[in-house]
Amino acid sequence: METETLQFHEMGLDDRLLKAVADLGWSKPTLIQEKAIPLALEGKDLLARARTGSGKTAAYAVPVIQRILASKQNVRVQDVRALILVPTKELGQQVQFMMRQLTAYCSRDVRVADISGKDDVSAQRPILMEKPDVVVGTPSRVLAHLNAHNLSLQTSLETLVVDEADLLFSFGFEDDLKNLLCHLPKIYQSFLMSATLSDDVQALKELLLHNPVTLKLQGSQLPDSSQLQQFSVRCEEEDKFLLIYTLLKLRLVQGKTLIFVGTVDRCYRLKLFLEQFSIPACVLNSELPVQSRCHIITQFNQGFYDYIIATDERSLADPAATSQPAGRGKKKAAEKAGKAKEKEYSISRGVDFQNVANVINFDFPATVESYIHRVGRTARADNPGTALSFVANTEATLLSEVETTLTGDNAESTLKPYQFTMEAVEGFRYRCRDAMRSVTKQALREARLKEIKKELLNSEKLKTYFEDNPRDLQLLRHDQDLHPAVIKPHLKNVPEYLIPETLRGVINPMSKKRRRKTLNQKPKPQGVSKSSFKGKNPLRSFRYTKRERTKKPSQS
Ligand code: AMP
């Protein structure tokens, strides 16, 4: 039986909050918001298993803001009333952004400061001296400020939020978190948000929450197939490159796409490979300075780029997998540094990429959890999405693990085979091989160094200049060619005779001039991306002629 959804205006929220929610265009609360907000407003502690993209940030942000507004009606003293702990700087920035949007009409009453992002503790001191109502930060940074007496929570804290709690543990924030708790008052309300309810999270629940309500809202950790279509295709190394080339060049993949690879090296390998066909893509990995990473995500959300090639937390578990640039003797130190960096950074989780139409696992993720987090970047809120995983023989066991988990969760949430006929694109193989050969070890090394150098420069510029000139930020693109390999201009185009017969006349990659957004161009609309792969089912492009496809696409 369907019960009526509780609406935002029925929750007893302050008008200023309701106005901000309306401005965001949220017509109704998401499931977690509908359940969590009223309970939180009653004063309950909450443990919520919240899928990425479920609207979990607002599920805690709305009651936090409401409570501050209510408190301030009685006692107008300015003090830190809420602390939001996050595992990464990126998530910190995103939470602050969401809080600022929700406090658009009460920004004087509810001041928010994100201390996760800046480098220097002493530079942040003045921000905390102002006693912002809400402080957002990583556990270690918050602890550093508590120890430096820049921040005191003993008497003022009303609400504690721990966001992405499971990630806090995998990033090694456990000790900082425990030490931090000694600085908190005896009574406060707590919200614990986590994608998984691991043993660590259960232990934290015992430590933090008093008589909590546990919300495990969705049966499955990913949306079902009416919202998220998941496919897998078996292919070995060379075929992975051939397939990605075909999908992108023939524009069989449409809309914003995140392409995940296993290591930083593979990020650049793929970027350099695509570069030779004039397919621009950004890389996003832990080697890049944090400002650059945030800027890339912001620009991606604004529609500047179609493709991001990203690594995820796989290298966290195995830092050696993140091969370092030249200098063997320094390998150990570099690995250590790499590990520390990875700890604070994982792009497949926590960070809010908006309107991602497709996730492509170019390399299959190392764990089921990682699969869920990667694929959870698409089909967020009510948007549709498609996930396609390339699976080599060596990755087949991982695929089975994912399939077993997903089917166990919900039979509707599972991977279908992507029946791609490789023979249809055999004609492209020679040029792909050619391009793969050009991406030598030397070229990779040069590309990595060049990119880091460039991004470090960008990062400095971003920090200083762009703080004062935010509009100019748009001029800085991150998807430019690195081309240490020789670019062969003819590879940019796709001759008609190489296009699979079934697609001739349907697609014309040469006619599609790539959008290069400049300052004066409007960003791509942020609405729902139309279709993920061409047609509802990406297989169709290869299986039907144009007429057949327009006549009657079959159901899969
Ligand atoms: P989150 O799970 O908090 O990362 O949110 C995922 C996305 O959903 C964000 O881009 C939010 O802006 C969006 N969102 C949150 N709540 C709603 C809502 N009630 N209606 C529509 N979109 C929402």
Strand order, main sheet: write it out. Answer: 3-4-2-5-6-1-7
CATH topology value of the largest domain: Rossmann fold
Radius of gyration: 24 Å
Query: Which cofactors or ions or other ligands sit in this model?
Result: adenosine monophosphate
Secondary-structure class: alpha/beta
Kindly state the number of beta strands.
14
Q: What is the number of helical segments per DSSP (H or I, 4+ residues)?
A: 20
Kindly provide the name of the CATH class of the largest domain. Alpha Beta
Biggest sheet details: 7 strands, parallel
End-to-end C-alpha gap: 29 Å
Global outline: globular
Mean pLDDT equals 78
Percent strand? 5-15%
Q: Give the name of the CATH architecture of the largest domain.
A: 3-Layer(aba) Sandwich
Helix content: 25-40%
Tell me the CATH superfamily of the largest domain. P-loop containing nucleotide triphosphate hydrolases
Low-confidence stretches: 313-350, 510-556
Would you write up a description of this structure?
The protein is α/β, with parallel strands linked by helices. It folds into 2 domains: 8-216, P-loop containing nucleotide triphosphate hydrolases (Rossmann fold, 3-Layer(aba) Sandwich), CATH 3.40.50; 228-319 and 343-504, 3-Layer(aba) Sandwich (Rossmann fold), CATH 3.40.50. The protein is built from 20 helices and 14 strands. The strands form 2 sheets. A 7-stranded parallel β-sheet has the order 3-4-2-5-6-1-7, sandwiched between helices. It has a 7-stranded parallel β-sheet with strand order 10-11-9-12-13-8-14, with helices on both faces. Helix 3 crosses helix 4 (89-102), helix 6 (139-147) packs across helix 8 (174-181) and helix 11 (264-275) crosses helix 18. Residues 313-350 and 510-556 have low confidence and may be disordered. Bound molecules: adenosine monophosphate.
